[in-house]
Structure formats: C-alpha cells, structure tokens
Amino acid sequence: MKRVDLIKEIAAEFELIANWLSETEVATVASVVELEPQHLAEIAKRAQKLTGPKNVKLKTVIDKSLLAGIIIRITEEFGALFIKARICPSKGGDRFQL
C-alpha cells in the first residue's frame, strides 16, 4: 500500500515539473454539471488571456454545493486567481461571462 501512495506522489511531482517546463498553468474548473467541450474551450481561451503567453490545461471538478455557474481557480507562481463565471444566453448559444 505504501508503494501505491509513493507512485501517486511521484506522478504528481512529475506533472508539476512537466507543466513548469512547458510553461503550462493548470486551471481547475468547478461546476454543478459536466461542461460541454465548447464551454471548456471558451474557458481555456479566456484563462489563457489572464495568464499571458502560458498554455492552460483544464481540470474539471463536479461540485454539487454550487447552485449555478462555475468557479475557475488558476494557480500561479505567486498565488491563486479565483474567477466566478456564469452562463449567459446569447444569440449564438450559451456563453460564459467572466
């Protein structure tokens, strides 16, 4: 059992180093339901604008404690950025408003 835990720790450290080398920020997206691919693409695009030239990798989390909308957490070198967003109806379909 200890070896399994050790492998998980090694994998997590490897991911951190790989993200650092590839200048990739990991953004955690919490929502009540699973998001559609086009919504995730829009979130990634907007998160990349906030982080500058860095790549953005999204990790999704289902959070049943939310009533509506999403919460995006982007961890950067000197702190964390939290963004609350909501889905707004538009002519072209649902869009996120950050």
TrEMBL record:
Highest taxon of the lineage: Eukaryota
Key words, A-Z: ATP synthesis, Hydrogen ion transport, Ion transport, Membrane, Transport
Predominant localisation class: membrane
Any one Gene Ontology molecular-function term assigned to this protein's record: proton-transporting ATP synthase activity, rotational mechanism
GO CC aspect terms: membrane
Localization: Membrane
UniProt KW Signal keyword: no
Protein name: F-type H+-transporting ATPase subunit delta
